[in-house]
Each structure stands twice: as C-alpha cells, then as structure tokens.
Amino acid sequence: MIESGTLFIVATPIGNLEDITHRALRILGEVDLVAAEDTRHSQKLLQHYSIATRLISLHDHNEAQRSKQLIEKLTQGENIALISDAGTPLISDPGYGFVNQCRMAGIKVVPLPGPCAAITALCAAGLATDKFKFEGFLPVKAMAKQQALQKLLVETMTTVFYESPRRVVDTVKQVITELGSEREMVLAKELTKTFETFHSGTAQACLNWLEADTNHQRGEFVLMVAGEKPNQSEVPAEAINLLKLLMNELPLKKASAITAEQFGLKKNQLYQLGLEL
Ligand code: SAM
C-alpha cells in the first residue's frame, strides 16, 4: 500500500533490462501515472515487464508547464513515478524543477535507488573513489570546455564526465592539451550492455585506442580523469620517512599535520601523499 499523493523517483536500466529492482517494478505498476522523458522509449520498458500504467511526457521543453499539472494531480491524491530514458532521473536528466516544486508544495518525494552510469563506471574503473567529482556533460563551446578542463590541473579527486560518441575523441584530445598526455584516465563504454568495455591508461593511450578502430568510438561513454598526483619530488625524503613512521601510529590527518609543521610543508600535500603511500 502506498501513501496517496506521493512522487516516486525511479531509476531504470542503463542498458541491461535486468537491472531494475523489485520495488521499482512494483511502484511502476501501482502508481496512477508514470512521467517519462520519452514516452515511446519508456513504453518498451513497461511493456517488457507487462506494466500497463499510463505514461505522460516530462522533458526539458515542457517541464515547467507539466510540473504544475502533475502537482495538481499529486495534491488530489494521485501517485506519480518519474523516470528518465535511462538511469537515475535528474542526473544529467530532467526533473530538477519538478522535484524542487514538489518539495516546496509539501508533496512527499520518495527516491527508488538503482542504476546510474557515473556510479556504475566509477565502481569498476580502478580509480580513487574515496572522493570524486561528477561534472555531467562538458560544455559544448570550445572556450567553456577548455576552462572546465583547466580546473582539473589542480584537481586531486577523480572527475567523472558523461560524453557523447560524437565528441569523445575531441574531448580526449583536449584532455591531452590541457592536462598533458600522461594524465591517467578511464573510458567506460556501453555499460551493462553486450559490448561493455573499460579502457584505462594515459590520456594518450586512450586516444590511441579510440583512433585505432572507429568501433571503439561508438556507444555511450563515461569518461573518468584521475586526480592530479602531488609531486613527491617536492617532498624531502626525510619528510616522507617521518610521515611513514607516524602513519603507523596515528591517523593520517594527524601524521600529515605533524610532518607538515616539522618541515614547513603543506598539510594537504602530505595528506595526499599519505593516501598514495
Ligand atoms: N540519468 C542517467 C544516469 O543516471 O546515468 C544519465 C543520463 S545522460 C542524458 C546520458 C549519458 O549517460 C550518456 O551520454 C552517457 O555519457 C551516460 N550513459 C548512460 N548510459 C550509459 C551506458 N550504458 N554506458 C556508458 N555511459 C552511459
């Protein structure tokens, strides 16, 4: 039994149709209406699971007007599920305005977790996951894209991007221009699908792989850029030794703070170095 007047945010598969939760299927079947980015696309998913709930469109071009209409229905006690073409709604997909207005109107919003390309890619890429930055799609305009990539010069976290097959080669070329050919990166392609591929290496090696075969450029991509590594050569060997010793006895934060003070170095630099060690 679901509480009436609830909006459910339902994650759907990013390729493999088996990647949908029991709860998602139950809710999609029980709500009065499913708001979808592209109703024809989502009809196939519902049909696959023999779900007969009525679909209504909610996309970038009608979100403002459609939100009002759907909020009225929710206020009258109808239950609605929001889905996107793939993955988690609102993550580089429509729905933010709608959810924001529902919250402001005091409507209950319930998330149903499930696939998200960024997290799916990150958890198998082999790059640091303790902290990461999700940037969605890079800007299309050259100058804005260049500026967005330049920020990664000093970024120590893994950065995750979504990228279209049309732009992936150009983007990797720009990574090389802005961050150097040696920056480590991972291309995750066609996740959860038959031709799922992870390709990792330096930016130059990734470009070579993409250019070696046009088939490598086809499909949907998540592009992950490794964080900038602190320059170990700037840290004297004595400081590295002290840090190592202290790390055996103390939390890293404390060990890096003491070493930094002792050698007049930056705490953050030693902390990053400690994480690597
Ligand atoms: N809301 C979705 C999510 O939760 O991941 C993302 C939607 S965004 C419009 C679409 C982008 O996500 C694609 O251009 C691609 O970068 C990435 N993507 C979606 N499915 C993917 C897959 N199966 N493999 C790799 N990347 C995927």
Please, could you describe this protein's structure?
The chain is an alpha/beta fold. It folds into three domains: 6-115, Cobalt-precorrin-4 Transmethylase, domain 1 (3-Layer(aba) Sandwich); 118-225, Tetrapyrrole methylase, C-terminal domain (Methyltransferase, Cobalt-precorrin-4 Transmethylase, Domain 2, 2-Layer Sandwich); 232-276. It has eleven helices and ten strands. The protein has helices at residues 22-30, 39-48, 63-75, 96-104, 117-125, 142-150, 168-179, 203-212, 237-249, 252-263, 267-276, and strands at 6-10, 33-36, 54-57, 80-82, 108-112, 132-137, 158-163, 184-189, 197-202, 221-225. The chain has a five-stranded parallel beta sheet, sandwiched between helices. The termini are far apart. It binds S-adenosylmethionine (SAM). The site of S-adenosylmethionine (SAM) has 24 residues, from helix 5, strand 7, strand 8 and strand 10. S-adenosylmethionine binds at residues 14-15, 84, 86-88, 91-93, 116-118, 162-164, 188-193, 220-222.
